[in-house]
Amino acid sequence: MGIADYSEYDGLGLAELVARGEVSPAELVEEAIERIDRHNPRLNAVVYDARDEARRVAAGDLPDGPFRGVPFLIKDLGCDVAGMPQTSGSRFLKDVVSEHDGELTRRYRAAGVVILGKTNTPELGITGTTESALLGPCRIPWNPDHITGGSSGGAAGATAAGIVPLAHASDGLGSIRIPAACCGLFGMKTTRERNPGGPDDAGRAVGFGVDHVVSRSVRDSAAMLDCTGYPEPASPYAPPPKLRPYTEEIQADPGRLRVAFSAETPSGRPIDPEIAAALAETAALLESLGHDVEERGLGIDYRRLYRTQGVVGAANAAANLHSLVQKIGREPEEDELEPLTWAGIRNGRKLSGERVMGAWRTLRVLNREILSLFEEFDVFLTPVLGTVPPPIGHIDPVGLEPREVSRRQAKVFPFTPPFNFTGQPAMSVPLAMSAEGLPIGMQFAARYADEATLFRLAAQLEQERPWKDRKPMIWG
Fold first, then answer.
1. For residue range 141-196, what is the model confidence (pLDDT) as tens digits?
2. Would you name the residues annotated as active-site residues?
């Protein structure tokens, strides 16, 4: 039997139908497959289809988790699923297949989801747009001429189109928040190592990257983090434990928060007027809800921050390639990596150990400056993007010179990276729409390990300015 309103439910809603016996996991999987067949040719969100395996799993005994029977997708980057490709969007890795499930995948399965396949990502997750030579461009369901953001663009595109209610995503410099903003979703970047990265997490040594989900509802994000967000015994930097389940936090009043907001960009260039207006409207909304709101920036030396991070990032790119060469057994050919990727690797190979460690020391000091500001306010608000989601090809990592890609990214994505450097939680909330019908997301950051405050605030905003009934052009 068909479920005509399948896409109207969030993940917990679908699981409730399964629990009541109104629908089976197998039926939910068929609904998701039908939507992949109908929408994916235009979106290019799902890049590996595991429908036969999903049908087998859905017909068997699933764990009795809160998402039992819910169709789910994994990003094709950093999250191993046994027997599925792990290309990381790169021609150099096009033949890599994961031999085992990673720890996070095991936790997703224990939550009850049925994994349908893998989603699109740019090469090695480097860019804020999902357009690679291997996997091709991923398109936004609101207007397929525009980007879904990156690097979790496929996850966001599939979720926004109603193929799945939530999907795995990851965030190294904004890669959960940017696609969530582009696609009109909720996206929580968790505290560093809140979710597991192991056991094969050597590539996360710099600590910028985290995993979680993009979702259409706040409660799905909270419930999934309750399922997955507890320390691994061997985690070297596990954050402080939560005080209570996040599904309880979203039922609580956030109280009277001190909110600072700013449109300042690292370059000093102003953001698009439409984005600035959405920021001002969000600040006014927060004030109307009883929060104390003031306009103020971080006041940090952005030039020094990004110059320092650039050294660390380039060194990590070179080390990452070294690991990949060991895995593949050979060096990549020139055309097996994109120009932007090569640029980072070659810069990294020129660096001395002294310079890299000096950059690490400077970054630590700058991170302390940012973290100390949160003694003066509870939440820091900015837009996620400095512009509306640009057209496909505007930030083309394959065809543009690396310097031009970086210049355009700096204009479009000026706000998200600092909270990866510090490890703080930050979220994108879909609070506005542009005049041409494209989503606008607002970023909220909180103190280290304080996802609870963000979840409480997100639930309040979702109730006050609900986004559930907004539907994109390609939907359901």
1. 999 999 999 999 999 999 999 999 999 999 999 999 999 999 999 999 999 999 99
2. 75, 151, 175
Rounded distance between C-alpha atoms, residue 333 and residue 270, angstroms: 41
pTM (predicted TM-score): 0.98
Q: Is the distance from CB of 72 to CB of 53 less than 8 angstroms?
A: no
Structure tokens at 455: 């979840």
Q: Each residue of 217-252: pLDDT tens digit?
A: 999 999 999 999 998 888 888 899 999 999 999 999
Q: Minimal CA–CA distance to 466: which of 430, 436, 437?
A: 430
The CATH classification of domain 6-464, taken from the options 3.90.1300.10, 3.40.50.2300, 2.40.50.100, 3.40.50.2000: 3.90.1300.10
26: tokens are 């197998």
H or E element that contains 215: strand 210-215
326 Cβ partners below 8 Å, 6+ apart? none
- Please tell me what DSSP assigns to residue 291: -
Handedness of CA 266, 267, 270, 271 (dihedral sign): negative
User: From CA 24, how far away is CA 51, in angstroms rounded?
Assistant: 16
